[in-house]
Write a structure and sequence with these properties.
The protein has 186 residues and is an alpha+beta fold. The protein has a single domain (4-180), classed as Glutaredoxin (3-Layer(aba) Sandwich). Helices cover 27% and strands 23% of the residues. It has helices at 31-34, 50-67, 89-99, 112-117, 154-164, and strands at residues 4-5, 19-22, 27-30, 39-44, 71-77, 105-107, 121-122, 124-129, 134-138, 177-180. The protein has a five-stranded mixed β-sheet with strand order 6-5-4-8-9. A three-stranded antiparallel β-sheet has the order 1-10-7. Strands 2-3 form a two-stranded antiparallel sheet. Strand 2 (19-22) and strand 3 (27-30) form a beta hairpin. The longest helix has 18 residues, at 50-67. The chain is globular and about 45 Å long. The mean pLDDT is 93.
């Protein structure tokens, strides 16, 4: 389990539009149709990564709570499915249902979206304000599969609460850590 840190993209960066396949709904969905007027969380996740598996229960609890408060969540799987078949669209459907994902789980087959966002690992979180400007990037919380800390999403919660209250996100943002995105060999 090689650990890769997320890249700390500059705050204020504008979200890049996309139109990706949602295997659960069997249709394409765009950022423009999925965004929120309060905040939009874009998260790069996958099915097989132990770091993602470790936070999944807490992630579902967090998304359930904040969806009710008007926040949008969009999960994107950009992994190479030839070499990592557990991340295939069919498996995304199975995982989504099994875990109770209540947010769109999109497939970035070309990996162009992950590259555009400079995503490096799974999980990797980006929070955009109502104008789709980046206000948070980094970790879910301090929990890791090996450190004994129970996942709660403390960092994401703090950022979302501040946004909901129209306050500035003024705490230290720490990079996420997880499995590297499984890039295709072109």
């Amino acid at each position: 389990m090689a650990a890769t840190y997320s890249k700390m993209v500059p705050l204020g960066t504008k979200a890049i539009d996309f139109n990706l396949y949602n295997p659960i709904l069997d249709k394409f969905q765009s950022l423009q149709e999925l965004k929120s007027e309060i905040a939009t969380v874009i998260m790069f996740i996958c099915n097989h990564c132990p770091f993602v598996k470790f936070i999944n229960k807490a992630l579902v609890e967090l998304t359930n709570e904040y969806l009710e408060r008007g926040i949008s969540f969009i999960a994107i799987n950009s992994n190479d499915v030839v070499n990592y078949p557990e991340d295939s669209p069919q498996k995304m459907i199975e995982y989504s249902k099994e875990l109770g994902y209540n947010f769109p789980y999109l497939f970035d087959e070309t990996q162009e979206v992950a590259k555009a966002y400079d995503a490096a690992c799974t999980p990797d979180f980006y929070i955009y304000d109502k104008d789709l400007k980046l206000v948070y990037r980094g970790q879910f919380d301090d929990s890791r599969p090996s450190n004994g800390i129970i996942p709660t999403g403390k960092d994401i919660r703090k950022a979302l609460d501040l946004l909901i209250e129209n306050k500035t996100i003024d705490f230290e943002q720490k990079p996420s850590i997880g499995c590297n995105i499984k890039w295709k060999n072109n």
